Amino acid sequence: MALRHAFTGSPARLMGSVCILVAAAALAGCSTTKDKTLTTGSIPKMTKPVESMTAPELASAAERIGSAYERNPKDRNTGLAYANILMMTGRNTQALAVMQQVAIANPADREVLAAFGKAQAAAGQLEQALATIGRAQTPDRPDWRLYSAEGAVLDQLGRSQEARDRYRMALDINPNEPTILSNLGMSYLLSGDLKTAETYLRSGSQQPGADSRVRQNLALVVGLQGRFQEAEQIARQELDPQQADANVAYLRSMLQQQNSWKQLASKENKSDNNTN
């Protein structure tokens, strides 16, 4: 889920943190069978999608899937599932090592190459990630997920216009796909255009199939514009209380890097009073 990890530091580092979230959101959509692989074959069954798990639930799932991976490290689906959940728990170096092995065993598998690119990007190997994603893409059968993934990495490299071109190429193939709209919105956030960012993120959040990550990105953009009460309402949507509290705490930490939480709340309260 997009607001799972907290970051600290200057506003410049805030932008770097957001960029990582863009990559995570985009590349998590590369696999059309990712969620299914978590509930089939030798992989332990999950009680809920990994994106909606709490930190303890993720740790437990990582332990169980890790045990399955140790029993059969050559199993493609287990490797994909294990690398994905490792990244969700912040173990990016280990996830990359797992995906390197899976990619060696499946050098022509587009889904594996896409996941390998995701792991490289999460580990900070951005140029290598671009090359890997490029190998997975084929001109005669272009994949919108790979265009969106490529855009996410380009955003991290500061090549925003190229990134947005890739997102729009992805939208040409799959119009109104919420993850693409979310990544396009976050691209505008990185350049400081919060209004345009909100437009795309709000559109993405209203599409069928939009998940919590899209709404959490919208909450961040709304909060950065000083509308915190609205942002908190968005951040708490469709989550259990523990997850909602964690997301709101993350949202506060992100906003405090830009401005004081109290100043934002005071600004919103004054605005409300002036309209009454």
UniProtKB/TrEMBL annotation:
Keywords associated with the record: Signal, TPR repeat
Signal sequence, start to end: 1-28
InterPro entries, sorted: TPR-like_helical_dom_sf, TPR_rpt, UCP035836
Bilayer-spanning residue ranges: none
TPR repeats by residue range: 144-177
Domain of life: Bacteria
SUPFAM superfamilies: TPR-like
UniProt protein name: Tetratricopeptide repeat protein
Native species: Rhizobium terricola
